[in-house]
Amino acid sequence: MGRVRELGIAGSLARIKDKLVGQPRTLVFMRLTLPRMEDHSSVGADFHLVTSQEVMGWSAYDDGYFTREQALCRLESGCQLYVLQRQGRNVCFGWAERGTVDMRWLNLRLCLPDDVVYLSCLYTPPQFRRQSCAFRLWRAVAHHWKERGATCAIVAVNPQNAPSLWLHERVGFKTYQTITYRRWPGLGCYTIQHPCGRLRRRYTMACTVPTDLWSTFWSSVILEAAWLTTV
Ligand SMILES: CC(C)(COP(=O)(O)OP(=O)(O)OC[C@H]1O[C@@H](n2cnc3c(N)ncnc32)[C@H](O)[C@@H]1OP(=O)(O)O)[C@@H](O)C(=O)NCCC(=O)NCCS
After folding, report:
1. pLDDT, tens digit (0-9, with 9 covering 90-100), for 22-34
2. Domains, the chain, ranges and CATH?
3. How crowded is the C-beta side of 115, counted as CA atoms within 13 Å?
4. Are 194 and 220 in contact (CB under 8 A)?
């Protein structure tokens, strides 16, 4: 009986702590250097930049992340939606954003320079997975942005999402940092880790949404060289 009560108290304390502090949230930031991609002129007729009219006209809308109404709001706010189509069916979805991007899950804002594009919410419906749909869509989106003068595409992936990490590595993305966010009442604590594992920065913010943490280890080669010479 005493043990049961102990477990109950421990569970309640854990729930209170979760409410106040929240679980740590981690995302792996990866980038693809667009000018380095080999030329591949045929983006493919099945690759498509979607308009609001099309989203309204589709009999069903299933991009895995948003409802039709949310997707229309995002298009209205300037985000771009791409699909890969096969025999008239949408077999893969993905979004691109530029400028200021709010990443609510990490309580972070990305203020991107003009030549960087943020790709997100990639989704292949389960029946089309492992047929290279996501690979082909992201490659096509990357080429699309390369032709428009962008130099880098970035993504943020949950480290527990192995298929997504493998997919992005296959496309050519490289990890440049990992951000872990912990929420305390009135405070946000961020740990940014370089992929080498030896470099780490910590920031604590009171009631502000940081805008430049997404690029902490952007110039990682230079930073790493500087760090190695000072230890
Ligand atoms: C992640 C996701 C988009 C991959 O889509 P997909 O169309 O199945 O991926 P592809 O078929 O293009 O895979 C390309 C490569 O990625 C890797 N890969 C993708 N899924 C994999 C899996 N489940 N297991 C192992 N490798 C995988 C493989 O290297 C694969 O190449 P291969 O098939 O020649 O071995 C899909 O699983 C999905 O929609 N998941 C849910 C949403 C999600 O997690 N989105 C990512 C958000 S960052």
Report:
1. 789 999 999 999 9
2. 30-176 (3.40.630.30)
3. 10
4. yes
For residue 64, give the ligand 1 atom closest to its CA: 42
Cα gap 53→216, rounded to integer Å: 39
Check pocket membership of 123 for ligand 1, CB cut-off 6 A. Answer: yes
The position carrying tokens 């590595």 is 169
8 Å CB contact between 128 and 142: no
- Testing ligand 1's pocket by substitution, the residue of 121, 130, 136 carrying the most ligand atoms inside 8 A of its CB is 130
Q: What's the maximum distance between 2 C-alpha atoms anywhere in the chain?
A: 71
Nearest Cα to Cα of residue 52 among 27, 91, 79 = 79
Structure tokens at 168: 């992005």
CB 120 within 8 A of CB 155: yes
Q: Is 156 in the pocket of ligand 1 (CB under 6 A)?
A: no
- How far apart (Å, rounded) are the C-alpha atoms in residues 113 and 126? 35
8 Å CB contact between 117 and 98: yes
For ligand 1, is residue 30 a contact (CB within 6 Å)? no
User: Do 140 and 85 form a contact (C-beta atoms < 8 A)?
Assistant: no
Q: How much of the chain exceeds pLDDT 90, in percent?
A: 71
| Tokens of residue 130, six digits | 């492992």
Q: For residue 137, which of 177, 206, 90, 188 has the smallest C-alpha distance?
A: 90
Which pTM value belongs to this model?
0.89
Q: Residue 122 C-alpha to ligand 1 middle, in angstroms?
A: 10
- For residue 160, the one-letter residue type is Q
